[in-house]
Amino acid sequence: MAASIKEVAQRAGVSLGTVSNVLNRPDAVAPQTRQRVLEAIKELGYVRNDSARQLRAGRSRTVAIVVLDVSNPFFTDVVRGAETVVEAAGGMLVVCSSGEDAARERHHLDLLEEQRVRGLLITPVGDDHHDRLERLVARGIPVVLVDRGSGHSHRCSVAVDDRLGGRLAAEHLVECGHRAVAFVGGPLAIPQVADRHAGAAAALAEHGADLRVLETRSLTVAAGRQAAESICALPPAQRPTALFCANDLLALGVLQGLTVGGLRVPQDIALVGYDDIEFAGAAAVPLTSVRQPREQLGRTAAQMLLEEAENDGDHDHRHVVFQPQLVVRQSTAGAQHPPG
Amino acid sequence: MAASIKEVAQRAGVSLGTVSNVLNRPDAVAPQTRQRVLEAIKELGYVRNDSARQLRAGRSRTVAIVVLDVSNPFFTDVVRGAETVVEAAGGMLVVCSSGEDAARERHHLDLLEEQRVRGLLITPVGDDHHDRLERLVARGIPVVLVDRGSGHSHRCSVAVDDRLGGRLAAEHLVECGHRAVAFVGGPLAIPQVADRHAGAAAALAEHGADLRVLETRSLTVAAGRQAAESICALPPAQRPTALFCANDLLALGVLQGLTVGGLRVPQDIALVGYDDIEFAGAAAVPLTSVRQPREQLGRTAAQMLLEEAENDGDHDHRHVVFQPQLVVRQSTAGAQHPPG
DNA sequence: CACGCATTGTGAAACGTTTCATAGCCTCGC
DNA sequence: GCGAGGCTATGAAACGTTTCACAATGCGTG
What we know:
DNA-binding, homodimer, 12 strands, 6-stranded mixed β-sheet, 44% helix, 6-stranded parallel β-sheet, alpha/beta
């Protein structure tokens, strides 16, 4: 059914090796022969079998990226950035989603290892799979951590300074006069979440305030709505005057939930998100958010990966850290809160 | 470097075939032997080489989905639905994005054909690549069209009735008293866009109104903002009183652009989107939109694909069509427009 | 005219699996 | 005690490439 190189060779009246040469080193074969082979290929509808090629060549042309959540616009932008670079290099980017679930992440890593992918971009769920990543590297599959700094010097990473991001958010809220601030986000096992919280907590501590935590099960709009409900249920005296959300999806959900519960943003409660996804500025109350260079994150990560895959063996592992940037919009632009 | 089955066999003191049996038919090998083999596997850190497996087995375990735009929440939801089904079946879903670009779509199809994927879910950019899809099917790779009906009876498809969707939107606008309606969307070569437009145009025609078209280059927020600018530039007398956008991204962009240009939604211009993505309800002015069963679309498509891949050869191609549903929100809830 | 060299083409080996026909060994029933 | 038949394990073939050492051919040069 599926024509192989052998049949092409037969039809063109040349040897196996010649057909392979036409495919891979066209210059090494006489124009006339090449022509004959190309015609045979077209006539038979021959398409190269990549499994065989990979098996023989020992290396694949596909690069994988494992993200926490495909539906999160933050990650889709990162993916787009990486895609650009990988495709420009003639490769293919496959996208896998762990859904913030360690088991699914592990499953994906296993399959990708079996496939001997060219390289791996990953935002790990937690710190659970270091050994697995280690093994990939040992096998010659470069790994670049995305949106996550790495203490490990034998691995590249691209990240945004999440502690700084948390600090920026918190300091902005303090300047607006807020003291009773709560952090909405989770699971705290996700390093980005923990860092954003830590940065904000540190900044608040310097001003003698502390940061309550409202841990969520995930970083989704739905989780945000749920969190908002529990905030609305609080007696007004115990309610925080400002919320810092671990990402924009959460913040959008919180915004919806607060509105439903009759609380106004920013008059009753100020709101800061994180990521500055495209929808943050288009929200019912445009969201103050901490912007990350999303596409650039993806591009840089992919570039470093390809570079490492190129000169395998010797390669200086780099750790690129971008700076986040506060974007102030209406969700915190309310009247100054009375201090205390 | 990478241990192969042969070394495992050697270490466990068994033959090649036995190791393979342990991997694929564990019951066919004596418990004691199996144990020895498993230990050898663990000690050597052996991981199966999928290229070799695929080459020999002739079939892959990965299913691909080619969407128009990874950053569009509509598609990420479809992907999530498909993912669920494929992973439950032990497979892997790889996501490719054509970016509404026929050349990229072709490139992806070529690579996927080389990889001999198990099956393909695709929302084609246009009608350009029928021959290529045909060839995939001929090669034994089932193809299911997503979000796109198919005249072709030798192919499954899952779609939502886009003409009906367009009609729902238009009729709602007519009921609100609008007569001067414009359609914002493009490229019109994308079948969904064309159908939504056609449905709306037909409905308006029945009421003696016609539908101006403002064709955009793509279905993105940015394209929407741009379209809004040109609308704001129009002399008020020529301005439509309502806009029907081909999708929600576009509508969100239009909403932003109109606001910037000083036009109020819905008082000055009413707005209807399409898809009812999660962010539609959270927008500055919550968006009236035509809802599609996104995840279900993905799930159904994947199920049909796997089913076809299972019993290859005989298979009844089905064409599932879901009904869209109008969700009315604030962006059209303004005062009744005077007729005319 | 013979020699070396450049240009093309050849055929076999190798990549790491899965599969399949076969062989050895037991046990069971007669 | 012997043949039938069930378990296990074996080894070779096959999957479709790429690669590589080598052969054949033709050409210019000394």
